[in-house]
Amino acid sequence: MTPLELASAPHRGGGGVIFVIGAIIVGAVSLLHAIKPETAWKMRRWQFRNQAANEPSPAGYAAIRFGGIGGFAVAVVFVLLGTHVL
């Protein structure tokens, strides 16, 4: 069975599909932050009056990238749990 067939199986209920869709969205955003951590700053920079002074350092970008990798790993586990593969 494919993951989509597992998620939509009649005996599993409808909640698993929403869980998997949410995990996929979180995984996509986390993967984006892992690949290009500047996007995390671009999503938040409107909050600061002096944007140049508040831009993260290279270590800050590395922390964003590390968090993106961790978030993606958690999202993959949630997708597998939601499709009852694990």
Topology record:
Layout: H1 3-7, H2 15-35, H3 38-44, H4 51-54, H5 58-82
Helix pairs in contact: 2-5
State the low-pLDDT regions, or none. Answer: none
Helix content: over 70%
Q: What is the total number of structural domains?
A: 1
In N-to-C order, the SSE pattern is HHHHH
Distance between the termini: 14 Å
Nearest-integer average pLDDT: 83
Largest β sheet strand count, sense and barrel closure? none
Q: Indicate the proportion of strand residues.
A: under 5%
Given the structure, what is the number of helices? 5
Cα gyration radius (Å): 17 Å
Structural class call reads: mainly alpha
The tally of beta strands, per DSSP, is 0
Shape assignment = elongated
Notable characteristics:
single chain, 86 residues, mainly alpha, 72% helix
Description:
This protein is mostly helical. It has one domain (3-82). It is built from 5 helices and no strands. It has helices at 3-7, 15-35, 38-44, 51-54, 58-82. The protein is elongated.
Overview in brief:
With 86 residues, the protein is an all-alpha fold.
